[in-house]
Amino acid sequence: MSSTTKQSLTTKKKRELISAKYDLNHKPVNYNDLSYNNKIYLLAIFRVLTDEAFEVIIPLNSIKHDKCLSPTKAMDLDVLNCLYTKGIILVDPSSKIEAFNFKNNKITNDFDSEEVNWIVNIGTEGERQPLYESYRTTYNDIVNNIYFDENTQIYSFTYTLAYNEALIYLQYRCEELGFVYGAGDRTLIFIYQILNNFSVSEIYNFIDQAVEEDYFYYSNIKMNKEHFGHSIPERMLKMSEKTKINKKVLTKNSRNDSIPRSTLSSIYYELIIEKDDEGFTESPKVFWSETLESFYTKE
């Protein structure tokens, strides 16, 4: 992120301003105060966004193309922001200068969340743990304990993950046809509704058909591409309702090779609950009622 304001700050002065603003002298967050979701977020970050020295969280933009933290960049940023606003991770002041913005010879309050390094701010008795110790603590806790009182968090998490997996495929299909799909609240609400009865692998069918119908419709009436995609959410919802009424059995598609499975998905479904890819192959509502609800219920 570069400034648009002319200035005379030297590199040394910029580094001093960054170090002062993003001072690491913060009381560490006690691990036991973290929510279950935050622990899952951290474990995924430790797996996919750490340097080889295992000392810092590397920038989001440095992640390899065959890996991803979550299904979408928007969810990636939500995860990082969630941990940052709670003080669980801190901006590393040694991040590259270009990640920060300067104006009128001062550092501004904004920074590029995709370009900074992060410091894990977890500890006990006021002492910040090294990243490798935080990883060990988080891993052992998540793998060996079941959080029976976190039902609401987990239910919401599985829906959010499924929604973003459907969304990234929808955006991918639109990009194939040469237009960008901007998802808003209507898309979110309609896809959540569809997820009550269908898995992401089944929703691929609705997406394929809705995207093609929308594209041909707006192409035939010669509309600008800025209008493309507007009818997609409603088309998908109508298809899902008709499919449910007719009790039609849908094809369960495989994952698209161009869209890697997220680390959050594999950690939760494989490592934590020791299943496979049910976040993709099963409706989150159905999977909750048939499997997860009992998993998180004390006998």
Helix content: 40-55%
What Rg, in angstroms, do the CA atoms define? Answer: 22 Å
Overall mean pLDDT score? Answer: 93
Summed up, the domain count is 2
How would you describe this structure to a colleague?
The chain has 299 residues and is mostly helical. It has two domains: 11-144, no CATH class; 151-295, no CATH class. It is 50% helix and 8% strand. The protein contains eleven helices and seven strands. It has helices at residues 11-21, 36-48, 73-85, 131-144, 151-176, 185-195, 200-220, 232-246, 263-272, 278-281, 284-295; strands at 29-30, 89-91, 100-103, 106-111, 118-120, 122-124, 127-128. Strands 1-6-7 form a three-stranded mixed sheet, with no helix packed on it. It is flat.
Topology (SSEs and partners):
Layout: H1 11-21, E1 29-30, H2 36-48, H3 73-85, E2 89-91, E3 100-103, E4 106-111, E5 118-120, E6 122-124, E7 127-128, H4 131-144, H5 151-176, H6 185-195, H7 200-220, H8 232-246, H9 263-272, H10 278-281, H11 284-295
Parallel strand pairs: 1-6
Antiparallel strand pairs: 2-5, 3-4, 6-7
Properties at a glance:
single chain, 299 residues, mainly alpha, three-stranded mixed β-sheet, two-stranded antiparallel sheet, 11 helices, 7 strands, flat, disordered N terminus
Give a quick summary of the entry.
This protein is mostly helical and 299 residues long.
